[in-house]
Recover the amino acids of this structure.
């Protein structure tokens, strides 16, 4: 339907009513969507795109392990947990094993660091500022994840101390 309003006070009033109804509809739809996503998270289902190593199963509306990339992700965590590799080394390792950006380049250092600090891999995810226990399969152990976080924090701590020492 197309609405046409006269440039009269009555026409302008009807136009403002039509805009108000449209605004109410959009706000109500937005609220219902947010409520549904929040409930999905409470049920343990991640309401978004699965991270690297997982796939969104659109048929069952769940997240499943990507059998091709999950072992590579696990091995990347294991290699980094040893403590002698950098995030850049892990990024290069991912590329040599077929995990690249859409343009075929190495994953950025920030993307690799986000991957290494993503608790989704141990079965926990964040949504809307809250932490939920996921129903998806975890691909790494909590101990391995904690070791990687320890290495990441130790390296960040070294850089933050170096910056503090250089400031006059």
């Amino acid at each position: 339907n197309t609405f046409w309003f006269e440039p009269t006070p009555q026409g302008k009033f009807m136009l403002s009513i039509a805009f108000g109804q449209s605004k109410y509809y959009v706000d109500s739809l937005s609220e219902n969507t947010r409520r549904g996503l929040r409930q999905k998270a409470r049920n343990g289902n991640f309401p978004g795109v699965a991270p690297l190593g997982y796939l969104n199963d659109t048929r069952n509306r769940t997240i499943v392990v990507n059998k091709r990339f999950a072992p590579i992700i696990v091995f990347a965590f294991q290699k980094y947990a040893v403590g002698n590799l950098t995030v850049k080394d892990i990024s290069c390792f991912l590329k040599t094993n077929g995990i690249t950006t859409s343009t075929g380049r190495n994953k950025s250092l920030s993307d690799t660091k986000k991957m290494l600090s993503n608790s989704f891999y141990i079965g926990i995810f964040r949504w809307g500022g809250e932490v939920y226990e996921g129903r998806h399969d975890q691909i790494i152990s909590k101990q391995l994840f904690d070791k990687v976080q320890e290495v990441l924090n130790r390296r960040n701590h070294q850089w933050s101390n170096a910056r503090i020492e250089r400031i006059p």
DSSP finds five helices and four strands in the chain. The longest strand covers residues 54-57.
